[in-house]
Amino acid sequence: MCGRYTVTTQQDLIAEMDLVRADDASCAGALAVAPGLPAGLTSWWAPRWNVAPTQPAPVVRTRAGRATLGLLRWGLVPHWADDLAIGVRHINARAETAAGKPAFRDSLRRRRCLVAADGFYEWRRDGKRRVPHWFGPGGGGPVTFAAIWDRWRRRDAPAGAPWVESFAILTTAAAPLVAPLHDRMPVVVAAADRARWLAADDLPAEAVADLLAPGAAVVAGWIDREVEPWVNDARRERGDRAG
DNA sequence: CCAGACGTTGTT
DNA sequence: GTCTGG
DNA sequence: CCAGACGTTGTT
DNA sequence: GTCTGG
């Protein structure tokens, strides 16, 4: 699965993908609903060491023909949902079955996006303790997870109210490096495949099926590093409790 | 037709 | 045990 | 994902 | 909104 991750190298991703940064108004929907950004962040595109479900996070989409970094809430809320809370059950979507699920199908065809990240966490159980491990490229640097998005607004919302845009991370079978801790992991999209994933077309599932297949090659050179247990607390952004 | 669900994960 | 919040 | 709560009534 | 179950 993927239930927690880091994104600290977004400036490198902005350079690598030549991203436009969305204006603050387009981030208003994700920020208008609790919990908003973790305390202590000076901007929505600042580095994050502990992105947790329901938080807003930076995501790349094609907007007006340009790859654009914007802020979306983690946990996909389908446009037909009665309540924002539906999103907590949609933090991940299984790549093998998403094309057939009412909550994900249309988003997979028409609203694909990439989560800006540099690695993800998995937990090892040691008796009652849950010990976090970080998985990412040994040399550091940005990576992107395949994701889908939708927008939602309460039915009785006033006409001018902002839409809440939200996303789900696609998961696939775990690579051998991750398998000892868990049988699922996020779909990692290689730099060369990003443009195809982001294409604004209404794609049949087959058109991107190869990108969603388990791809051990994409995580070649990745490492498994045990990290400090402050990560367990989703309210913490750093070990020093600074934010 | 209407009513009700719509999802993944881990754990047992 | 199960749900909610982050 | 993990951590933490898990409730109702009446009154302000 | 759209699909499934009754």
Structure description:
It is a single chain. The chain is built from five helices and 14 strands. The protein has a single domain (5-232), classed as SOS response associated peptidase-like (hypothetical protein yedk fold). With 243 residues, the chain is mostly beta strands. The chain is 12% helix and 34% strand. A hairpin with a 2-residue loop joins strand 8 (119-126) and strand 9 (129-137). The radius of gyration is 17 Å and the shape is globular. The structure holds four DNA strands.
Number of domains: 1
Shape: globular
Strand order of the largest sheet: 3-1-8-9-14
> What ranges have pLDDT less than 50 throughout 5 or more consecutive residues?
none
At the fourth level of CATH, the homologous superfamily is SOS response associated peptidase-like
How many helices? The count is: 5
> The CATH topology is what?
hypothetical protein yedk fold
**Which structural category fits the helices and strands?**
mainly beta
Question: Under the CATH scheme, which architecture would be assigned?
Answer: Alpha-Beta Complex
Order of helices and strands: EHEHEEEEHEEEEEEEHHE
Q: Report the sheet with the most strands, covering strand number, pairing sense and barrel closure.
A: 5 strands, antiparallel
What is the CATH class?
Answer: Alpha Beta
Radius of gyration: 17 Å
The number of distinct β-strands equals 14
Mean pLDDT across all amino acids: 92
Strand content: 25-35%
Distance between the first and last residues' Cα: 26 Å
